[in-house]
Amino acid sequence: MNFLSVLIISATPILELRAGIPLAIYLGLNPVEAYLISVAGNFLPVPFLLFALDKLLNLSRNFAFIWNLYEKIEMRVRRKKDLIEKYGYIGLFFFVAVPFPATGAWTACLLAFLLNMNKLKSIISILAGICIAGVIVISPIIGLLNFIK
Fold first, then answer.
1. Region label for 99, one of left (φ > 0), alpha (ψ between -120 and 50) or beta (otherwise)
2. What is the pLDDT of residues 87-98, one digit of tens each?
3. CB distance 24 to 39 below 8 Å
4. What is the percentage of the chain residues whose pLDDT exceeds 70?
5. Residue 80: phi, psi to the nearest 5?
6. Nearest 5 degrees, angle CA 21-CA 10-CA 29?
7. Which of 11, 34, 79, 149 lies at a CB distance of 3.0 to 4.6 Å from 41, suitable for a disulfide?
């Protein structure tokens, strides 16, 4: 059950692996398991989002609340697109790799969609960014665990 909890939390927007890894460690998983499950969970929605976002947006136009929410999110995301436009897929990678608030896989998918980036190249860049973000998140946790022992 711990595995599933970590997978779901890591797949959730905003929380992603930034919350999944600490949760996994708290639940007693070893750091390797925590990393692998969190990275997998964080990556899980990426292909679906990149390939279905246009269809989901067309469907959401029928629901005013959802469409208004999307427009607000889109405005915030468009402010972050300069890095991606300037550096392309490397920029997308760094956008995900540096685990700051609102720079995760979900936001990167929306950026890639809005900028009409190649889906396969975007998936690869986002996955690589997720892997590095996971290392950045888990490293201080491992250090702290070793310090406590």
1. beta
2. 999 999 999 999
3. no
4. 99
5. -100, 5
6. 35
7. 11
How big, in percent rounded to 5, are the helix, strand and coil portions of the chain? 80, 0, 20
115: DSSP letter: T
Token output for 115: 């900028």
With b for 16 or more beta-carbon neighbours within 10 A and e for fewer, the 74-110 pattern comes to eeebeeeeeebeeeebebbbbbbbebeeebbbbbbbb
| Residue 138 pLDDT | 97
Token pair belonging to 88: 């392309």
Tokens of 27: 């639940």
Hunting for tokens 């685990």 — which residue is that?
A: 99
3-state secondary structure 63-109: CHHHHHHHHHHHHHHHCCHHHHHHHHHHHHHHHHHCCCCCCCHHHHH
Tokens matching residue 97: 């790799």
Where do we find the tokens 């890894």? 21
> Token match 């969970």: residue?
41
pTM of the model: 0.90
